[in-house]
Structures are given as C-alpha cells and as structure tokens.
Design brief:
6-stranded antiparallel sheet; Phosphorylase Kinase, domain 1; alpha+beta; Beta-Lactamase; disordered C terminus; disordered N terminus
Length: 746
C-alpha cells in the first residue's frame, strides 16, 4: 500500500493533518477513487462542483437548483476556480484564435473567436470546470452539444465543432452579432406588436422543430434568443435541454429560469406545454416591455406563477390588438391543457394574426371582416360584381315585371270590356227569346186548351210553337237551328200537361210518379210573375232535364184565363251547346264562356254546384261542367234579388264588371289544353244570374314580356361576366400566393 504524507483540509473544517491516505479511498458522494494529492475528501468531479458553487455564491450567479444538489459538499470557504487559459495569455484554442469575451454563465464563458481553418468568425463556448470537472456539469455541457448537433433549423443556432483544450471542453457555434433579445429589450423597450408576433412565430417554429426531434428546451427566455445581423431570432443555450423519452438528469430537479417557468415546471414536471408557456412569457415581455410575474424572492415569484392570473397585456398597452393579447394569455394558462397544444399551434395562431385571418374563437362576422381585410382586391371585385348584379338583375326583373303587370292589367281591362259587350249581346238575344215565349203564352188557343184539360190540343200547340220558331221570319232563329229544343205546358199546380221536344219525346204518364215540377225554379219564377199578374217571362236556373238528360236553361211565362187569372205555365228550353246560337267570341288568344246558376235535382235539397259552365267551345250538345268560383257567385247574387223576377233582362250597373288574374278553367279536367292560369273578365247578363267570362291564357299573353325579362337577365349576366372572371382570377391568385414558400408552414 502506497502511503503519502500530505497536508489536507477535510470537509468539516480546516485542519492540518499529517497522516497516510489509502490509495483505494472512495469519494463519499460518487464512490469514485480519490487521488492521493486531493486537497479534500472529494473526487475531482465533486470538487469541481464545489468550485462552481463557490464561484456562483461569490458572483451572485443565477438561481440554479443544481447548486442545492451539491450544497452539502461545499466547504465553509473556497476560492474561485482559475479563469480559462485564454484570460491568462493563451488565446489559441483548437485552431481558433480568441478575440474577446462576449458573455459568461454558470457553465462557461462565450468568446468571439476566429476559425483559422475555415476563415470565419465564430462564437466559442468554453467549459469552466478545470481539469477534473463534475460529472453532472460535464454531462450538462455535453448535453448542450449533443442536443444542438441533432438540430437543423434556420432559427436555431448551429454547432460547428466540439473539442477539448488542456482538459477543458469547448464547442463553436455561429456568431450572432445582434446580441440577445433581452439586450434588445433593455435598449429599445417593447417591440411593435406585429414585429413581436413575426419574431415569435419564427421562434415557435424553431421550438416545434425541437419537440419534433424529442427535445425540450426547458430554459426558453429572452436571453437565450440571439439575433443575427439582420435581426433574425435564433434559439440557443440547450444546457438544460431534456429528451422527451428520457428522465431528468436529476430526478425531480427544477431546471430553468424561474421568471419564465410554467407552474408545473416549478414542481419539476416538464412537458412541451412548459416550453409553450415560456414562449408566452417572452411574447408578453416583447409586447408590454415587462415580465408577467415579478417578485423580491423566488418563493414569491413561484406563488404568483401558480396562483395569480397575469395582467391583461392591453391594460399595459391599450393599443394592443385583442387577438394578440388573447394568444399571449392562452400561452400563460395555469392548466397546461388550456394552452396551445404545441409550439406549432402557437406559430399558426401568430401567422393568422399577421395575415389578419380569424382566430379559432372568432365569430362569423369577425371571420368575414378579417377575410375582407386580407383580400381587399378580391373583396372589392366581388362587391363590384355583386353590386352590379344586385342592380342590373333586379332592374331587369323590375322592368320586365312592370311591363308584365302593365300588360296583365291591359289584358284584364280588355277582357272586362269584351265580357260586358258579350253580356249585352247575350242579354239582347235573351230578350228576343223571351218575347217569343211571351207571345206564345198569350195565344187564346193555349188558354182554352189548358182550361178544357185538352191534352192532345196542348201537345199540338207545343209542336206548332216549336215549328213556328224554326221560321226565321219570327226573328227568333239565330242560325240554321232553332235555339229552343223543347216546349212544354204545366198547369197551375206544376203538373206536366203537354210537351214537344227535339228529338220528339213520347209523352206518357207514370201513375206512381206523376210529372209534377212545382219544385223547379222555372215554375217558381213564372208563378211569382202570375201572382203579380205580370205578363212577362222568367229566365231560370240551369236544369238537367229528366226527359233527355241534357243541361239547359228555360224561359217560362204565366198563362192567364179569359178572366185574367193564372191557369198554367208555358216553358221553352234552350240546351247547352258550343255556341248557344251565335254567342261565340273568339280570337287568337281569348275564349268566351257563359256561366249560369244551377237548379237542384228532384229530391235533392241543394244543387250539385252553385254554377255550371253553360257555354264552352269544346262542349258537346247538352254538356255542362260544374263551376265553383267566388267572383261568379258574387256577381250572381248582386244581379238578382228583386230585379230577378220583375226585370230579369234589365241592365246591371257597370260596377259589377270585374276581373281576375288567377282564373282556373274548370273544363281543364277533361280538356288539359285549358289547364294553367288565365286572365279573365266577368260581366253579369242583366239580372238573370248568368255571367259572361272572357279569358286569356296568361302564359301566351305575357310571352313577349317574359322573353324580354330573359333577354335582360342574359344581358346583365353577360355584362357581369368580365367581373366574375376577374373575381375567379383574383381568388386563384390569392390561393396561389397562400401556397408560396414565403408563408409555407414548416
């Protein structure tokens, strides 16, 4: 066993001892061998840690929990380790000539140096550990080199080479002549918000690059953001960086700068959210000129970080944009889950802010407004095209609509006039027919036959009357056919006594069902005249004949005896037909129809419909279609009343002539060519209850106006097409610019 006599100081206090040391003696902290000439009972590595602690204490160095890790090894007093050889005259290190000292820290000093081999200026960082540094310190220094060597990003300080000089570790990196961001803040104060956002976007993307490669920085602060000559930021100082898949070098150790720490980082828990928090602190510092939390002691600062919400940046800088303030405050959330999920998400939020794009919390109105601000040219073109379209298209539609409305009103007025004229014609024809019936009812032979009950004579009179009015000389025949298709006689009780029809219908009696028609409208109307001793006629409602099944209206007149008392009723029937004689008014667009009120059938309390179409161009003989139309019903009611009996053929007031722009032809069910919307004019025929309808198909009448509307719309679209093409081009240009490398996300 080698025994060496030496004077040494143990860790409990200074004392001179003169005793042998066993060569195999171990360090009480790391169990490494202690050299025989060691001044303390510590190995060189732990002894270096003591030297670092002493140097920090003497120079009031930064708070570092690693100091506490080695505190129990500190002697009561000690000396500052020697400065690097470069400070003592040796200025050549591994092919690099030192120029001057730039900065210093707990791990080493940074020098500006000249790389003699590459001919470039570099920054050289040399470890302060002496010849036998602590393993923890060495591992931290080597970790910085290892972490930096794995990275390749334009905003991360690159490492050029690493080596050892006389037992001291060093590495070289790109020289940043712009100094640190902390120095810039100290000189200039808070940055312009947009400049701060642009700078922090680049820093956040650099930090995201770290995270993608499994590295946490854990000590992001403005002093560790270096600026080049162009003012571009670069992330530096990876001395306490940690791999995401590794545990901390010291379990539970709190590393980093407390002023920039996340709440959970102060307890030793580090994740990517901690770096996002630190980025938020730097952003807060850049836009307000101060840190979010300050204090006299470390404990006070940590308490504020954990429990006090940061002051709104806008309270410090009122002109600050709300979105940027919210981005900053979201990074500083106490709950890591409420922060941005990654540094890249923060970078994207800052890019949206710089591009005036809406943030994720923006409302639809805010998003639309931000889009307008971002794409002013495109928005202007769209606004111009839309404005043009909103002016031209409605103008075209308005012009066409006004022309169509005018044309519609014109056609309705024409149809009203036509209906009034046709109603006058029909009324004139009805007077002629009524005169014929009134003359026939005044024949003495008819009165004698009724009084005598001579049925054959009554039938002979019906036949002769029918044949008589086939003769045009009587002035009743309207064309080649007689308008009357049957004549018959009722006694004063409404019982049928005789008839003649076309074609002839055999007269017979049915004992169980006598031909009694006192319930018919034609009997009631004529007998009302008889009771007033009026020699006149009555135009009845439309009936469906029980003899031949045809639809027809009748004209009836009372028959008086020699003493002037009413003894019976003479009735003449006029069947529905395409023309009802000559009552046809047709042109290329309009048709004329005649509607009349409907009488009820036997044993039916009400008629099947209020009115029927009595005249229509497509009718077969005796055909009629039901009509339920409110305007026709109102005209029927207005033109009847007391005048219906006493003056059925009198002229109605002009105010009863009306129109409709949405008339539907009931004949459209069996005849589809009459389907659709019609413009119609209505006019009553005297006080008979009949109504003339002159109708024009709207689609045909307004075809020219609709064609004009299409032309105007086409012209407007053609006029707007150049603007639309410009809008599409602008949108393409914006889309293409959005994919350009200048804003491409890394």
């Amino acid at each position: 066993m080698d025994i060496e006599k030496t004077t040494r100081r143990d860790h409990r206090g200074p004392k001179a001892v003169d005793q042998p040391r066993a060569s195999g003696e171990r360090c009480p902290h790391c169990r490494e061998a202690i050299p025989a000439d060691a001044p303390l009972d510590l190995c060189p590595s732990c002894l270096f840690g003591v030297g670092l602690l002493v140097r920090h204490r003497l120079s009031a160095g930064p708070l570092d929990p690693l100091d506490d890790e080695l505190a129990d090894t500190a002697p009561p007093s000690g000396e500052r380790p020697p400065e690097p050889a470069a400070e003592s005259g040796d200025r050549l290190i591994g092919g690099h000539r030192l120029v001057h000292r730039i900065d210093g820290g707990g791990q080493g000093d940074v020098f500006e140096a000249r790389d003699l081999r590459m001919g470039r200026d570099v920054a050289l960082k040399m470890f302060l550990g002496g010849e036998r540094p602590s393993r923890v310190a060495v591992r931290r220094f080597q970790g910085e080199v290892k972490a930096s060597a794995k990275l390749d990003h334009p905003n991360i300080v690159p490492i050029y080479e690493a080596g050892e000089h006389k037992g001291r570790l060093y590495f070289t990196m790109k020289l940043m002549r712009g100094g640190s961001l902390a120095g810039e803040l100290e000189r200039e104060g808070a940055l312009d918000p947009k400049d701060a956002a642009a700078l922090m976007e680049k820093v956040a993307r650099a930090v995201h690059h770290l995270h993608q490669r499994g590295i946490l920085h854990r000590d992001l602060k403005s002093a560790n953001i270096l600026l080049d000559e162009a003012g571009e930021p670069h992330v530096a100082d990876f001395g306490v960086a940690k791999h995401l898949d590794e545990s901390a070098w010291l379990t539970g150790a709190v590393v980093g700068t407390v002023l920039y720490m996340a709440p959970e980082q102060t307890d030793g828990h580090t994740t990517a959210h901690c770096d996002v928090y630190s980025l938020g602190v730097i952003l807060y510092e850049l836009i307000t000129g101060r840190l979010p939390f300050m204090g006299e002691t470390r404990a006070e600062i940590v308490a504020k970080i954990k429990h006090v919400p940061p002051e709104d940046p806008r309270a410090i800088s009122p002109r600050l944009d709300r979105d940027l303030a919210r981005i900053c405050l979201r990074c500083l959330e106490k709950d890591p889950e409420l922060r941005y999920g990654s540094a890249d998400a923060l970078a994207l939020a800052l890019r949206r802010y710089l591009n005036r794009e809406p943030q994720e919390w923006a409302t639809r109105i805010e998003r639309a407004w931000r889009w307008y601000l971002r794409h002013a040219m495109t928005a202007g073109l769209i606004a111009a095209v839309v404005t043009f379209a909103l002016i031209m298209m409605p103008s075209a539609v308005t012009i066409a609509s006004e022309r169509a409305s005018a044309k519609r009103a014109q056609i309705q007025q024409v149809n009203m006039n036509s209906a009034a004229m046709v109603a006058g014609t029909v009324l004139s024809q009805l007077r002629a027919l009524s005169d014929a019936v009134e003359r026939a009812a005044a024949e003495p032979a008819l009165a004698r036959a009724i009084q005598d009950g001579d049925v054959p004579a009554m039938e002979a009179l019906c036949k002769s009357t029918y044949q008589r009015y086939e003769d045009p000389s009587y002035g009743v025949k309207l064309n080649e056919n007689s308008p009357f298709d049957m004549w018959f006689i009722l006694d004063k009780h409404g019982v049928l006594k005789g008839q003649y029809a076309k074609p002839p219908v055999e007269f017979y009696r049915r004992p169980s069902s006598p031909f009694e028609y006192a319930w018919r409208d034609y009997y009631k109307g004529a007998w009302a005249l008889a009771e007033k001793r009026l020699r006149s006629t009555y135009v009845s409602r439309v009936i469906k004949s029980e003899n031949d099944g045809f639809h027809k209206f009748t004209i009836s007149a009372p028959v008086y005896g020699s003493d002037g008392t009413p003894i019976g009723i003479l009735v003449a029937g006029v069947a529905a037909a395409p023309n009802l004689g000559s009552l046809v008014v047709r042109d290329t667009q309009s048709i004329t129809v005649l509607a009349a009120p409907r009488d009820r059938d036997r044993d039916a309390p009400e008629p099947p419909s209020s009115h029927v179409i009595l005249l229509h161009p497509d009718y077969a003989y005796g055909e009629a279609m039901p009509l339920e139309n409110e305007q026709v019903r109102r005209l029927d009611e207005a033109s009847r009343g007391a005048q219906r009996i006493e003056r059925p053929l009198g002229l109605p007031p002009p105010s009863l002539v009306t129109s409709s722009d949405d008339y539907r032809d009931p004949v459209a069910d069996p005849y589809s060519r009459y389907d659709g919307r019609w413009l119609a004019g209505f006019a009553p025929v005297g006080n008979t209850g009949m109504v003339v309808i002159v109708q024009t198909r709207e689609a045909e009448a307004l075809e020219s106006e609709r064609s004009l509307a299409k032309q105007l719309a086409t012209w407007a679209a053609i006029s707007a097409s150049p603007g639309a093409i410009l809008v599409l081009f602008a949108a393409w240009h914006v889309r293409r610019r959005g994919a350009s490398p200048s804003i491409r996300r890394t």
